Amino acid sequence: MSTAEFALSCPLPIERYPQVLLAHGGGGKLMHGLIRDVFLKTFGGQPSGSPHDATVLEVGGQRIAFSTDSFVVRPIFFPGGDLGSLAVHGTINDLAMAGARPMWLSASFIIEEGLPLEVLGRIVTSMEQAASSANVTIVTGDTKVVEKGKGDSLFITSAGIGILESNQRIHPQSVRAGDAVLVSGDLGRHGMAVMSVREGLEFESAIESDSAPLAEVVLALLAAKIEVHCLRDITRGGLTAVLNEIAEAAQLGIVVDEAQIPVRDDVKAACEILGLDPLQVACEGRFAAFIPEKHVSRALEIMKSFPAAGGARRIGLVLADPDPLVSIRSSIGARRILDMPTGEQLPRIC
Amino acid sequence: MSTAEFALSCPLPIERYPQVLLAHGGGGKLMHGLIRDVFLKTFGGQPSGSPHDATVLEVGGQRIAFSTDSFVVRPIFFPGGDLGSLAVHGTINDLAMAGARPMWLSASFIIEEGLPLEVLGRIVTSMEQAASSANVTIVTGDTKVVEKGKGDSLFITSAGIGILESNQRIHPQSVRAGDAVLVSGDLGRHGMAVMSVREGLEFESAIESDSAPLAEVVLALLAAKIEVHCLRDITRGGLTAVLNEIAEAAQLGIVVDEAQIPVRDDVKAACEILGLDPLQVACEGRFAAFIPEKHVSRALEIMKSFPAAGGARRIGLVLADPDPLVSIRSSIGARRILDMPTGEQLPRIC
């Protein structure tokens, strides 16, 4: 598929979808169409850019990263995490993906009338624990309350500021043909932890979310002078969305080996029951890294020294092909296209 | 009332109100209790501090301000503004109140399924216009979609970064006995613009919101070397909440002259119909300034040179009294206490 075809395959939301659908928030084609045709068109920015990464700005000669995310996950408590820790990890990870050391967070709460204060207290405590164990400080915030039936217990929006200590330009456009594609661990656990609770699936032991802060791992790679061309946390739309976004921005093809992509058996089983593709399921503590071949073994060694990236693997390769296609080689050698997901599969996972 | 009595008069939310009420978002006692007992207790910070101001941080030797606000106003379009421009002005003004030049904003959208994209487009366009006319740039964002009935068309959370160009410490604790209290214009228009639409009140001409960016005025005061002890935008809880917050933080009494407080006749009339006190009604383009007497006439001259502060007035005085009481002198000379409002009057005004 050429770039022009890719653009065409992103439906024009206003013409084809006059109202916002759940899929517009799902991390796939519809969301990318909405971001491109409504937000980027109005606010400016490169349609081929990466609107979900932190933006890099300069203050007093120092480069900083700035990012925000809203969190609307349901249920707000799930195995391995909750809305509060997720809101902290999500923004920390966006900053980390720009190579920044996360420093300060804001936290803004939209509370539905009737929320027990005890529940709010647990979420706020979880945020504070997640922040302090990642060495970031929540420094400012806001509270709004909406009437019963006009919200859904609690939404949290966090924004964050990080400091760039390295001069590397970590960006999709820094990706080069021949770069290896690494992932920091097994995929799909966060999405399936949430969906299993929501759908009432029971397994021998609960699937726990992978929600975790990733800055420490990234900063260690940079401190070791690993050339890091691009980083992307694997959230909505899963690995499939990440690879398609990077391929599109870099204008290069990517191929991955199915046998190398780590997915746990319980996650595979849950995906099968729900008819989902694990490669489209969100994580909240995993990232993909695009790194030149010569640095791969050292990078994997460093990543594996952190619990959050203990399952790091090399899963694929950036091709010299200027067609931004993502393909996957199955274990029997067949090759198929990994197309950008539509985003309908997993609403309110983060 | 002593400080201890003031603290007692802020209900302990968890014990007395086990569930979140609309009033917890109203800018009054309940909200302050929630912030103090849940957020500040967990995240740290001074209970006597000012949780709604921007936080001042240091990056590369440069002081920056960082702030966030969620906006849930209903209806999303009202005379004189809309949710989009409000989200931009609100965060700009929080930064300005720290004396910062607002530079960059984030915008995070929580969209209820079914929102017409045309409406979203109008709000986003309004944000962009408000940002560009205030010389700030929206640099990062996020989009989440929730199911129909789990949101209310659109909530926007903005965060912002500003740069402090002046060395003045603009803070409630810099307020001194003898400081004059100025307001930048007539009060209560934003709240009554929104309430009039919501309650179907009809006047000869619609009351228009005062929603406006205030940074230009503040930066002009600072550039002219006016000693600015404290600034506070007059939002939820109105002038009454602002004065009580500052009195409490500064541990000083404040007295204001009713006859000097500018409130338009149509706003007074609308307040009377709805049983509201105009001094408790939110503005979104007005601020209070605490300035030493010797700089008042020059400060008023500068403020009046800007359309956003054309109606600036001196309305009162900070007393040497260490009891943090706010009182108001009526035109016939009677003096009464302006107590912190409970916050129940005006839900979802911003």
List keywords for this structure.
homodimer, 350 residues, alpha+beta, 60s Ribosomal Protein L30, Chain: A, Phosphoribosyl-aminoimidazole Synthetase, Chain A, domain 2, 2 domains, 7-stranded mixed sheet, 5-stranded mixed sheet, 10 helices, 14 strands, disordered N terminus
Any overview of this molecule?
The first copy, chain A, is 31% helix and 24% strand. Chain A has 350 residues and is an alpha+beta fold. Chain A folds into 2 domains: 46-164, 60s Ribosomal Protein L30, Chain: A (2-Layer Sandwich); 172-337, Alpha-Beta Complex (Phosphoribosyl-aminoimidazole Synthetase, Chain A, domain 2), CATH 3.90.650. In chain A, the strands form 3 sheets. Chain A has a 7-stranded mixed sheet with strand order 9-11-8-12-10-13-14, sandwiched between helices. A 5-stranded mixed sheet of chain A has the order 1-2-7-5-6. Chain A has a two-stranded antiparallel sheet with strand order 3-4. Residues 1-12 of chain A have low confidence and may be disordered. At the A-B interface, α3, β1, β2, β5 and α5 of A face α3, β1, β2, β5 and α5 of B.
